[in-house]
Design brief:
- By secondary structure, the protein is α+β, with helices and mostly antiparallel strands.
- Helix content is 36%, strand content 36%.
- It has 1 helix and 3 strands; from the N terminus they run E-E-E-H.
- Strand 2 and strand 3 form a beta hairpin.
- The chain is elongated.
Length: 59
């Protein structure tokens, strides 16, 4: 399994921008308001990031 290290930025007081590396090929960017549950996002995004990596490798 690859290393999973998201980058989290707070956008003023109105929300977040979260960037996930999808292997070496791409980035997944999530924009969310201040109600974001950051911990839940990280848990639930891992399978999506891994699946996107598989799809990009197969392409």
């Amino acid at each position: 399994m690859s290393r999973f290290v998201p980058t989290l930025g707070r956008v003023c007081s109105h929300g977040y921008i979260v960037v996930y590396a999808v292997r070496q090929e791409a980035l997944l960017v999530v924009l969310a308001d201040e109600g974001l549950d950051v911990s839940r996002l990280h848990v639930e995004s891992r399978p999506t990031v891994e699946r996107l990596g598989e799809l990009l490798t197969a392409a």
